[in-house]
Design goal:
alpha/beta, Rossmann fold, Pantoate--beta-alanine Ligase, Chain: A,domain 2, six-stranded parallel beta sheet, 9 helices
Length: about 280
């Protein structure tokens, strides 16, 4: 496995790996890897001949009051996990390598879709996500990039960006990976206290209740959201920030709810913000 920490090292590594190889698959991450991240490598391997992974905590996607400074990091552990999983290349840059001019003057505007759902509460987030993703895609030039479906809005916006800007890359969404009790795997789960960790799986159970109700024939968004909220009632450690039923392409709210729509939520468990979603079908 090649580890590149600079642009020049990345260029040299890509030239070596691409010699005689076919498709390059790319998995962007912020590190502190878990089984969900590692599953993205498996999807990339199925769709490509060489797999590259980035590990970079991107400051552009954090607001001033968010957890950039405390976001969990363990690059040595990440590298060991990636080598064990069969990554061919890991790009592990410092902030100055990604943003050598300091402030990033030119950024990628997510448009109105970036103000919905999480964007309503994290106004700089998706501009930062799309900007760093564009830079990484430009540096690596992969044929395919794998993005987890847990970050549903992020996936939709990256897909839309690639289409609108005619980027020569296939964006593939990979399934959510969950703990045995249903909690969606996230690097931020490490923030949860023991008591909070016991409460957090109620988010997935709420989504499952909405999906079950949908499968009985219910098509009203209010009723579906009510089923979710009923599961969370009486849980003081859980505070719902939003829950909406949206169109998967536009992120607009839908009611009545057609098949393929997504019910998405964000909630605080204690002080930790968690997100999750489910497809209604």
């Amino acid at each position: 496995m090649i580890v590149a920490r600079s642009r020049s090292e990345l260029t040299t590594a890509l030239e070596s790996l691409r010699a005689g190889s076919g498709r390059l698959g790319f998995v962007p991450t912020m590190g502190y890897l878990h089984a969900g991240h590692l599953s993205l490598l498996d999807v990339a391997r199925e769709r490509s001949d060489v797999v590259a992974v980035s590990v970079f905590v991107n400051p552009l996607q954090f607001g001033t009051s968010e957890d950039l400074g405390s976001y969990p990091r363990d690059p040595d552990r990440d590298l060991a996990l990636l080598e064990e999983r069969g990554a061919n290349l890991v790009f592990l840059p410092e902030v100055r390598e990604m943003y050598p001019r300091g402030d990033q003057i030119v950024t990628v505007d997510p448009g109105p879709m970036g103000t919905r759902l999480c964007g309503a509460y994290r106004p700089v987030h998706f501009r930062g996500v799309l900007t760093v993703m564009t830079k990484l895609l430009s540096m690596l030039e992969p044929e395919v990039a794998i993005v987890g479906r847990k970050d549903f809005q992020q996936l939709v916006l990256i897909e839309r960006m690639a289409a609108d800007l005619d980027l020569k890359v296939e964006i593939v969404g990979a399934p959510i990976v969950r703990e045995q009790d249903g909690l969606a795997m996230s690097s931020r789960n490490v923030y949860l206290s023991a008591e909070e960790r016991q409460e957090a799986p109620a988010l997935q159970r709420g989504l499952a209740a909405a999906v079950a109700l949908y499968r009985t024939g219910e098509r009203g968004a209010r009723a579906l959201l009510g089923a979710l909220q009923q599961e969370l009632a009486g849980r003081p450690l859980l505070r719902l920030q939003y829950a909406e039923v949206v169109d998967v392409g536009s992120l607009d709210e839908v009611d009545p709810v057609p098949p393929g729509s997504v019910i998405a939520l964000a909630a605080f468990c204690g002080s930790t913000r968690l997100i999750d979603n489910a497809t209604l079908e």
